[in-house]
Design a protein that fits this description.
six-stranded parallel sheet
Length: 322
């Protein structure tokens, strides 16, 4: 499929702006769409979709914004892994994707790509492209709920001619200049505390926003039917290489059992505090242990962006001295 026109929600955000830039670099017409502020008390797919159907004015606004579009990318949302206000997270990360899908269905959009997060699978030994989720925090729950609702709509519309094709891209641990998470990683990597579990050879899903944007454009233009879930491809990073690139020093190699004990203790403390530090603990766990992922759809179809993670991490280290 060749896209004639794209719409991007969240076009001024971290991921949305990178996608917009990648589209413009390829001379693909793209229009940003302002994102409505939403909140929802829904905790199930049934209630979430019901809530969305009641927001007729929001659906009308989005449908008008999507008129003439071939592909809609929802890169909006609340990227706040440490936030605990569930209704705001659910509104931004679960209700909005449903409203986008309903508006796209009304307008005749051919493809909707929802940017989700690999955090929906939490600490699974291997990230994959199944619809299985195991959220561990209010943030990851909201992202998982949004995914589940889109799967429900995709199933309902499966036999309907003219219905939009709904697909989820699960972004992994995305780094980029100006992102707080990237700055935090660079500071850690540059400090005497920089460390990994074991020898640092474990693969890690740390990736670059540049590659994610290029990948999203390629997915949107893919001429065949897309699966419901697509995992952002691995860029070849390991736990050791990430810290060397971001800190320009060799990390300490800690015994794995020590690191696991620290993570377990931290999780117990976080649970007592209402899971407030779940996101931070998970970032430390990935930094120490990494996480494997399946090659998946991208490898099977040869849709692999050029790796940029090393470049992004080295830029982050240079930025610390400015």
């Amino acid at each position: 499929m060749t896209a004639h026109s794209w719409r991007v929600l969240g076009a001024t955000g971290f991921i949305g702006s990178a996608i917009t830039t990648a589209l413009q670099a390829r001379n693909i017409p793209v229009t940003p769409v302002a994102t409505p502020r939403l909140a929802s008390p829904a905790t199930t797919v049934h209630h979430l979709i019901g809530h969305a159907h009641r927001l007729e004015s929001v659906i009308d606004y989005l449908a008008d914004s999507f008129a003439g579009a071939d592909v809609v990318v929802n890169a909006a949302g609340l990227a706040a892994p440490d936030q605990t206000h569930q209704q705001s997270l659910t509104g931004a990360n679960a209700l909005l994707p449903v409203l986008v899908a309903l508006a796209a269905h009304r307008t005749g959009v051919r493809r909707v790509i929802h940017m989700s997060s690999a955090s929906v699978q939490a600490d699974a030994p291997v990230l994959d492209e199944s619809i299985r989720t195991a959220p561990f925090s209010p943030y990851s729950f909201s992202k998982a709920l949004g995914e589940s609702a889109l799967y429900r709509l995709r199933s309902q519309w499966r036999e309907e001619s003219g219905a939009p094709q709904l697909s989820v891209i699960r972004a992994t641990s995305v780094m980029g200049s100006g992102r707080r998470t990237t700055r935090m990683l660079a500071r850690f990597a540059s400090s005497p505390l920089s460390s990994v579990a074991g020898d640092g050879s474990a693969p890690t899903p740390v990736t670059s926003v540049t590659a994610l944007a290029q990948f999203t454009v390629a997915v949107g233009e893919f001429p065949e039917v897309l699966p419901p879930v697509i995992l952002q491809p691995w860029e070849g990073a390991t736990t050791g290489s990430v810290l060397r690139d971001a800190g320009r020093r060799h990390p300490l190699q800690l015994p794995s059992w020590v690191c696991r004990a620290v993570i377990a203790t931290a999780r117990t403390a976080s649970a007592a505090a209402g899971y407030r530090y779940g996101g931070l603990i998970r970032r430390l766990e990935v930094t120490w242990f990494g996480q494997r992922q399946v090659p998946g759809w991208a490898h099977e179809n040869g849709v692999l962006p050029e790796p940029h993670v090393q470049e992004v991490l080295r830029q982050a280290h240079l930025a610390l001295g400015r």
